[in-house]
Input
Amino acid sequence: MSILTEFESTILYIVVSALLSGLLGVLISNWDHKRNEIKRMKLRVLQQLMGNRSDVNGKAFLEALNQVAVVFHDSEEVITALKSVHEDVMSPNRSPNLSRQKLLALFKAMFKNLNIKTEPLTDNFFLTAFMPRESQSS
Output
């Protein structure tokens, strides 16, 4: 004699399936939300860097640069490029051209991490901010 009747087994199967699918749905939803929130934070930092690249010594640019290590902690390529920029900034023998190359490498690593295509853009685009001609001559 079976412990559960066929009807009871069917009901138990439905209840267990409903509970597991609900739990799985919540887990997937939380995982997706966390992933999207991390991407949003990364984009915000990159936007702040790119938006303030005309003044790499300015407060907004440096604040964003200081956030990179935290926000992009999961990207070895970005962290390596950031470390290179930091070493350059701390070096007493800084070369402006080398500094620009290291900053360029950081920008490109961040774009790559976020799967943002950069092919049509030149290296100069990343390092030269938009400014009206009058501002450039003064």
